[in-house]
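Re: folding output
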Amino acid sequence: MGAEMPIFTVFVARMVSPELHLAAWGSLVFPVSMVVEGPVIMLLAASTALAVDSENYRRLRRYMLWMSGILSIAHIAIAFTPLFDFVAHTVLAVPAEVLEPGRIGLQIMTPWTAAIAWRRLNQGVLIRYGHSKEVAIGTMIRLVFLVGALAWGLLFSGYSGIVVGAIAVALGVTAEALAIHRAVTPVIRNEVAAAPVAKNPICIGPFMKFYLPLAVTPLMTLFIQPAGAAGMSRMPETMASLAAWPAVHGLIFLLRGSGFAFNEVVVALAGLPNGLIMLRQFARRLAGITVGILALIGFSPLGALWFGTVSGLSPELTSLSAAAIMLAVLMPGYQVYQSLYQGLLVHHHQTKGISEAVLLYVVIALAGLYAGSQWCQVAGIYWAIATFVCAGISQTVWLRVRTTRFLHTP
């Protein structure tokens, strides 16, 4: 899934007015869509932990439908009403030329939240019952539809980059949700139905106590995406920073992806004999490998090769992006450890510490972005990434403190 943004950049950078449409995607469409869907992201962890029998799954599905419906209405309100102008112009203060492309892209992305909610609920069931291969197959289907739509748009459509890109992303995630639905149906019918009935079925009160800290976690984290765009919009080299952001963020996310996925692995395996020992060993290796790869790209000519030749960015954006990666080399490493600590807290149903850590991240990130909007003298993307790294390290340290007693559990 982490390949989605780099693939998006590769195609859109080769269409008409690439800087404009990459900036519209990076400053408006993608961050706003991510913030709206934020509360449903942790349905995957919740489903992995709580879908222990048919009744619990049905209740989780009902909660998911309510959340996705309400959030889809919020997305529509932003994309199709004057609320868009308030968000884009007043709150984010993006350049005027990206407003209309951003509006169109956000409208096309309307199915995004509901598809994500349905997909993540059922991915959790697949992971819990040992069918993670089907999760990977669903992601491959998503990428096939993404690449197919982007290639069609580049070669045959004549549409703008933001239209083609938004259609491709929305189509890909919808196809993945349908594939996961097809894969999970026999698992629900045969394995979930045959599971022992839980002594205490989940109900709305305990579920919200368990889930709200999880839901707030990605919501606060994802809120930093538009906050970062708003900050860069008030810093030097605005258009270049916003245009480079999808390519830079995409590469970082690609290498952080295995760290994100590690969260559900920890939830599922932490209770097994020697599970914690093996998970900690794996975390060290994964963190070292992903940091090493990003460092190799950032501190060698591979950066210019990736952003210039592969991604197709202009020489100016290539130079800006390659330098920005140097500041982000620790991100994949601390993401692995965040997932290790968060997974342990979810496994032990102690999710409050996750919200505390994310709140710390948000406070530091917002303070840093505000300081940058007042005093930054370098390209905004440099300041934003440095701020995110400082905030992310602080978040990881707090999670480590809150997880200390579980790290020594036999």
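--- second protein (sequence, then structure) ---
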Amino acid sequence: MIINMIKSLLFALAVTALSAQTRTGTIQVFVAPDHADWKYKAGENATFLIRAIRDGNVMKGVKLTYRIGPEQMNPTVTRTVTLDGDPLRVDGGTMKEPGFLRCTATIEENGMTYRGNGTAGFDPEAIRPAAQNPADFDAFWDAGKKELAEIPIDAQRTLIPELSTSKVNVYHLSLQNVGRTRGTRTRVFGMLSVPTKPGKYPALLLVPGAGVSKINPAIKYAEMGAITLAIGIHGIPLTMDLSVYQLLAQGALNGYQNWGLESRDRYYYRRVYLGCLRANDYLTSLDNWDGKTLAVTGGSQGGALSLVTAGFDPRVKALAAFYPALADVTGYLKNRAGGWPHMFREDGPGSMRTQANLETSYYYDVVNFARRIRAPGVYAWGYNDATCPPTSMYAAYNVITAPKQLLLALETGHNRVPEEDRIIENWLARLFATGQPPARF
């Protein structure tokens, strides 16, 4: 009798334990406009489809909040609904002017926030820049080029055996450059990768994304047959311990993107932009350069520097730019998204929207370099990018008159996917092999 009671109690406890089990797992929230290409005509209504998935199944009975509004602006619609297991269809409204409308959906569960974005583009090819084109833009940069030309390159390179391979020699390189103020000097540091096999090669300049980081050699491009120089922008050696760059990013170089903005002669990027030109001076001086093929590539800040370099250096024959920053940064003054670093987003007391800052920005805005690009280029980004909003990137892309191709990975934010990397790398490989920018991806 007692034994049977114990067995019954153990069975009941086991059943209780089983029934108390709870499920967990990563929730995925998907948001997409109902047009396959995510594009609409101005004045046309956009519908967003929202799904929440866990363990491969559509979720039901959970609360989801969605917000809709022009990208980077305050939402005009905010609603919370309970999912019923079917895809949620949301009327997103429209835009009367070219631009982008974003729907962001979130689920809160177990202290975690799960988020999905979908962005509808309204006549994006018709977006025009807010950035003004200064009458003396070319004169300003011609003066900078002249100052740079008067400074000897003074190239210093050191072989790094532990990074070199049987096919590629890797060097730490430094070149003399203009300083933060006129009449001063600093240096550009880079990692140079050179094919070991004797011959003449095309050259590729790699320009970095934002921040302060250790720059690695781009050996894969050298193995594809190009002399490759990956540069930093801060005038510091690239062979220090990783912790040094982390400390600089948090301290001495924190916020560099806004330094000196009140003066076009002292803005931080003056030395950076001219440093890219100095890197090209070096690449085109090498005996094993093929004498004709010079390309530039990078993403984010590097995407911006790719357009800048191609815009004021006629030696550049091709460029590949991913989600360029620093484009149409004054877009916020027209109540629409501007480019990273978003210095003009806020208005009111303490705002950076001073007349001096605005005027300086026009000499550095990627839009005004894009107007001057003559080299064929490939460009890539996604509609969900909140760091470099598509409004700002299209503002630059739309003024380019040189041959251009745009590769869209619509769902991506400020990131790349392997598929687009492969397409762009194949494009560069054909450029290196033929010396001609391919007309198609």
